[in-house]
Amino acid sequence: MGLFRKNKPLLSAEDQEKVVACIQAAEGGTTGELRVFLESRCAYVDAMDRAIELFAGLHMHETERRNAVLVYMAIDDHQFAIMGDKEIYEQAGGPLFWKTAAEEFKNYLKEGRLAEGLCVCINELGKALAQHFPYDPSIPHNELPDEIVFGK
């Protein structure tokens, strides 16, 4: 079985609600921000290049603590990337943390469990954000929208 299933809708309304609820729960204990961007095709050979472009386009680098994280997926191209802004990338443990998070997410995708994989990934990212950037009432809460962004 491939990484992604093609004959099902990308995410059902119920799965979208679950993923957004996971984002909200993960952000509850941190000043960090999480976004999910899903699209059919990646405009680049490397999904990380697309994630970098989207990160800027979604103004994720403008959070006060530079601790936003983007989970990007191009479903039809079977590509994804997890990108953290400078501060969370470094404080979460550098390349090893991000590689481990990606491998765990990939295992869910191989089983065709996209929504569950997103929720597990978001939960793990949220734990890292809460550990390194705990909730602080002096920082504007929810600097970025929680809804899933769907591209083309």
Descriptive account of the structure:
It is a single chain. It contains five helices and four strands; from the N terminus they run αβαββαααβ. By secondary structure, the protein is an alpha/beta fold. Helix 2 (47-57) links the parallel strand 1 and strand 2. The two termini are 24 Å apart.
Q: Could you tell me how far the N terminus lies from the C terminus, measured between alpha carbons in angstroms?
A: 24 Å
CATH class: Alpha Beta
Summed up, the helix count is 5
If you compute it from the alpha carbons, what radius of gyration comes out, rounded to the nearest whole angstrom?
Answer: 14 Å
Shape: globular
State mean pLDDT (0 to 100 scale). Answer: 91
Strand-residue proportion: 5-15%
> Largest sheet, if any?
4 strands, mixed
CATH architecture type: Roll
Extract low-pLDDT stretches: none
Give a short synopsis of this structure:
It is built from five helices and four strands, in the order αβαββαααβ. The protein is an alpha/beta fold. The model has no long low-confidence stretch (mean pLDDT about 90).
